[in-house]
Design goal:
α2 crosses α3. By secondary structure, the chain is of the alpha+beta class. β1 (8-12), α1 and β2 form a beta-alpha-beta unit. 31% of the residues lie in helices and 33% in strands. The strands form 3 sheets. It has a 6-stranded antiparallel β-sheet, covered by helices on one side. Strands 12-11-10-7-14-15 form a 6-stranded antiparallel β-sheet, covered by helices on one side.
Length: 311
Amino acid sequence: MAVNEFKWGIVYCPNRSSFFPNRTWEKVERSLKANNIDYDFVQSERKGSVTRLVKMFINNGYRTIIIVGGDSALNDAANAFMQVDAKVRDRIALGTIPNGTMNDFATYWEFREDEINRTVRWLKRRRIRKIDLGYIRYHNAEGERCRRYFLNCINIGLVASITHIRRSTHHLFGSRALSFFSSFILMAFQRLEYKMDLKINTDEIRRKVMTVCIGNCRGYGQTPNAVPYNGLLDVSIVCHAKTMQFLNGFYLFIKGKILNHRSVLPYRTRQVKVVSSGHAPVSIDGRLMKSPVGNFTVGVEQEVLNFLIPA
């Protein structure tokens, strides 16, 4: 099917934690019409359908694919892009209109949920930046070799569980800072630790840690200096902290200076080898994944995805 190269393919992912899940689409639709955007639209009905719908748009020749959704939906879209030939992928651009429980990657680029018309105007200008994608290589429970890409971060340990809780309770708090405050409170009371064996650059870390964040982007505040276009990953390893150190850590987190905390070990690298994770939970772009079996590797592929950024 021949498609006008200027026509957008839009995947709408309703935010089911919202009391009015279709209100965002009504605003998006008004803005698209006001900006004379030619588009086709499909709605994601269930978990896992974003990948299928994005591949449908790609196979039908769309050059601009927009996800109206959050970090998890963007993750599915990015993985769909990485399943096609690089020559095909280079002709297509991915964009986002934030509408999820967590919109950290969109917020990094200053796309805001409450500024839909500005976002549509930016996307219309089609300013493209080649961005990096992180990846995790692992074996699943059936022994199959798997690879999954991420835009924002991978969490290993306590924050992986807490981020999952945050996805379920975000609508009760209404803000990123408050929802993360509840996460840090849980960390203070639970003090969960995992015995890990990590290889980063020339260092081997063998110790009990609370959580590890490997960020291609800012990692929900845990890798605040990470950028998705330098071919590197930022890593924050959070060790056990006493109560007063924990409170200071929360203050530094709010100020964007979490790396200054004495219990945080920061690294910058191209690859992290997780020899042992102590059976810690693992999340990718805010969504819990089935924990990899045995050791696994986290790395980065540089400039592999066309992403629409503000203009």
